[in-house]
Amino acid sequence: MTMPIALAGIGKIARDQHVPAIAGSSRWALACTVSRNGAVEGVPPFTDLAEALAAHPEVRTISLCHPPVPRFGIARAAVAAGLNVMLEKPPGATLAEVAELERLAAAQGVTLYTTWHSRMARGVPAAKAWLAGREVTSVRVRWLEDIRHWHPGQDWVLEPGGMGVFDPGSNALSILTEILPMPVHLREAELDVPANRQTPIAARLHFSEDVEVTFDWLEQGDPVWDIVVETPAGALTLEQGGDRLLIDGRDQAVAGQGEYPALYERMAELVETGASEVDVSPMIHVADAMTLGRRIEVAPFEW
Ligand code: NAP
Description:
303 residues; alpha/beta; Rossmann fold; Dihydrodipicolinate Reductase, domain 2; 2 domains; 6-stranded parallel beta sheet; 26% strand; binds NADP nicotinamide-adenine-dinucleotide phosphate
């Protein structure tokens, strides 16, 4: 049986991933959208959450696809209305916002799910299983992509709360915090901030346990989304954002349904069991980098 769901913030990621994932799901049916400008063909559109819920009282779950800054107020209203809420990543503009949503969701008895889509990449569960209990001697992360391709014209990513290159970088950090068998903490960071913008366009993060992370949003051509974990038993490599897993250079067979279908499957499990899943560990590293990082002014950025 499918459950009705509302989708809000109909922009790039809603169209690219959420709409197809819901359409392909046997657990969910898209009942309506809530968005100031966006709509999905064949689905009743609303610009206001209260109006949407008045017209579709059967909807008990909403998935929010806004950027983090405007998302919080909408998430709070949705929880207050008694809805189960699924949040795009990163789950808030601040850690305190997420804590507040978690508190409100618990008080309301609804599900809150802070999704991290990269954790659903095909190689991630097998990488976590292989690393469990192993000694890690070093980690190298390269997350390099073209901002103009992945966030065309989206000025919000370079405004306060947009997190700059940590927007895609949090995908890498979400995998790291999932697969590493030991905790790590940031020791130093350099943040390259364009002279005309508020957030970094590149960053280099130096963690404990010899974990080195490079983010760059000015990479041309194909993206590089790689994590290499060295252990005495050999090197584990995740490529293609976690979809390809190699152990000592040998491809490992990995299966999976794809990131966003897996997120909606997980949301269905959470709602059906009345559970929440709230994890801010990738955001803690982002906040630490913004707190501790050395700001380096670089060339102005224009689209
Ligand atoms: P987007 O297209 O710029 O924004 C999504 C929608 O949010 C907009 O279409 C807009 O819908 C609504 N919105 C934007 N600013 C708003 C504001 N100030 N007040 C109220 N609503 C506002 O962004 P996106 O690329 O889809 O990213 C959204 C989230 O998904 C981010 O947290 C991002 O990290 C995550 N994400 C993005 C990607 C990607 O490749 N772009 C990949 C994975 C995850 P209306 O104008 O219709 O209200």
